[in-house]
Design a protein that fits this description.
By secondary structure, this protein is mostly helical. It has one domain: Winged helix-like DNA-binding domain superfamily/Winged helix DNA-binding domain (Arc Repressor Mutant, subunit A), CATH 1.10.10. Helix content is 52%, strand content 5%. The protein contains seven helices and two strands. A hairpin with a 5-residue loop joins strand 1 and strand 2. Helix 1 runs antiparallel to helix 4.
Length: 148
């Protein structure tokens, strides 16, 4: 349902929210290694998040990326829309133009209800809450994370 880039963007944002602790910027290379994401692919994803006001970046030896806003002010929906666009929350599951109440596809009723619940769920999931789960409950955001 979400693109690979979107999955990686959410994981990267959670990594930053969970690890920023007084550091101004998190090095992209560090995130790439810890999250097992290609450095170049992650860099492109982070550029999109920066262009959409979710991240800020800084070049140089102490550079990297940071959240542009407080973690409580960034939702999963913000990240999904920045990377994949709003299509997930607006479009027909079958990709049909003009699907709606007056001209529905066979899945319209079920999909529109699920789509609305999904949008609300992603709107209510902020990075602060999710990062607390990563820190306190050892939720994982990579195939493995070594102890830090």
């Amino acid at each position: 349902m979400l693109s690979k880039a979107c999955n990686y963007a959410i994981r990267a944002a959670l990594y930053i929210a969970s690890h920023q602790d007084g550091r101004n910027y998190i090095p992209i290379r560090e995130m790439s290694e810890k999250l097992e994401i290609s450095f170049h692919f992650l860099t492109k994803i982070l550029q999109v998040l920066t262009q959409n006001g979710i991240m800020v970046s800084f070049r140089g030896p102490h550079g990297g990326v940071a959240l542009a806003r407080e973690p409580k002010d960034i939702t999963v929906k913000d990240i999904v829309v920045a990377i994949d666009g709003p299509t997930l929350f607006e479009s027909c599951i079958l990709g049909l133009e003009g699907c709606g109440q007056s001209n529905p596809c066979p899945l319209h009723e079920e999909w529109s209800a699920l789509r609305d619940r999904l949008a609300k769920m992603f709107e209510n999931m902020d990075l602060e809450t999710l990062s607390k789960g990563v820190q306190a409950k050892d939720f994982r955001i990579a195939n493995f994370l070594d102890s830090e």
